[in-house]
Amino acid sequence: MAASFDSGYPPPLTSEQSDYLLSNIRDWSILNGLAVRPSSSFVSEKIDPSRSLALTAPVTLFPSLFPRVCFDEARAIQTAYNELYASIANDEEWLGEVVKELAEVDDFISNLWDVHQAVKKEGYVQDLSLGIFRSDYMVHKHPSNLDAKPEIKQVEFNTIASSFGGLSTKVSALHKHLLSISAYPPPTLPFISDSSLPPNPSISSISRGIAIAHKAYNRSRENTRLPLCTLFIVQDPENNAFDQHALATNLLTDHNILTFRLPFSTVLSHTHIPSDSPFRPLIYTPPHSPNTLYEVTTLYFRAGYSPAEYTSQDSWKARLHLERSAAIKCPSILTHLAGSKKIQQILATPSSPHLSSFLSSTSSAEYIGRIRDTFAAIYPLDDTPEGQYAISIATDADKARGYVLKPQREGGGNNIYGLKIPPFIKSLGNDSKKYRGHILMELIEPPALRNSIFRNGDVKSGEVIGELGVYGVCLWRHGRGQKEEGVILENWEAGHLLRTKGRESEEGGVAAGFGAVDSVCLI
Ligand code: ADP
Ligand code: MG
Ligand code: MG
């Protein structure tokens, strides 16, 4: 299709067209669970003390134009990316070297590593590990060569709580629905058609990952004869609960698997490991039915990734308790740590041999170059020549403009952008060791598109930029010890996500209050 990014898409709407579109977005979203709970800054606790209200998730009115070559490539390399991160999580020795440096300056990383060490000392009882990953990209176009094909550049790789797989299938379906009920005016049609709106099976595909872990759980070793369940470890309050419910509902309807939600802060009061059991099954006691015990097959963490959630020593006790249990973790502590931004920086260093060594199997070797092509420039802030170069950028207001500084954190809102980098570095004081907890990344500048975002009942139109996430599911057996290699048992690409934000916004988090969920209109 001869469409380009500066085309007249999407078309302007008359007020009647806009009313029709919005009323359908509102109603379809609630009907189908494309919903969020309002943040307390939007609806105060006084107005909704029982937290009964839900509203349409922030969405774009139109699917955003996205280059098909980029979409296809991001999907094509996902299984190799899954293998890469499973291999890193399996290489405890190498990961430990990286973590050791970070742990000196980052208590959170240090505490996570200590949890792993404590379980290792006692001996792990579960060798299976589940990854539900999401690799995030922005489109990059060479500013000097307008004829060059657009490429994808990776923003980050998530190994814990990769969210929006539940809402993503639904926003794709919403935009298809709007097309089918003629809510998009005719000039839109050359762009949007059934073939430009690809299917997005993120819900069924991610749920299937949890289901295969559930089935692989080796209950025969203990055979408690208890009913089995999976447990979603969640935050409380959780505004994005409907995203998670979509997965839990699918587990029940398609796989007959029961899921419970357990706030991270209540793990120790509602789960236990029988002290006389060497297999260490994790037993869940639901608060609503304290006489019924369940054996937990799979722990799906949608919490526990932010230091703010670890409010006391009990929080760390809870994480250790879960890690040492026989339940399959999604993710294990090692997998969680493999998703550190520092690891991404090491892989992206051009002279680094690690990418090739982690992707040495014949099936994935052909992807090494393609994965390398997705890396933007990322630098350490240390004593190496690259590190010294990065520090010279990060301390110079003019040069820092094109960069983002990232600590080892997840969940949005933690990065420092452009002009704010030099004063931040200064605030760390003279101890350059403290710099090492951060990486410096070149800003990717995707072409601006036009779209409208419907958020908290308001429509904002203007220039936007998108971030494509591709989900990956991987189940593997951890290799423990030098002679025992890890083995990948299942590995697939699991659907996608497009998030779109106003061009002027630095962060893109939908839950963090910046962006919207979107779907791709391939061109
Ligand atoms: P988090 O783990 O907190 O989501 P990210 O690395 O994804 O951290 O950064 C948060 C957001 O910041 C991204 O969604 C994106 O909008 C923006 N961002 C991060 N890195 C870059 C980059 N190199 N270029 C442009 N934007 C970026
Ligand atoms: Mg992110
Ligand atoms: Mg992240």
Automatic annotation (TrEMBL):
Keyword Disulfide bond found: no
Catalysed transformations (reactions): gamma-L-glutamyl-L-cysteine + glycine + ATP = glutathione + ADP + phosphate + H(+)
Chain positions recorded as Mg(2+) binding sites: E156, N158, E410
Pathway: Sulfur metabolism; glutathione biosynthesis; glutathione from L-cysteine and L-glutamate: step 2/2
Family statement drawn from the similarity comment of this UniProt entry: Belongs to the eukaryotic GSH synthase family.
NCBIfam families: glut_syn_euk
Entry protein name: Glutathione synthetase
Lineage: Eukaryota, Fungi, Dikarya, Ascomycota, Pezizomycotina
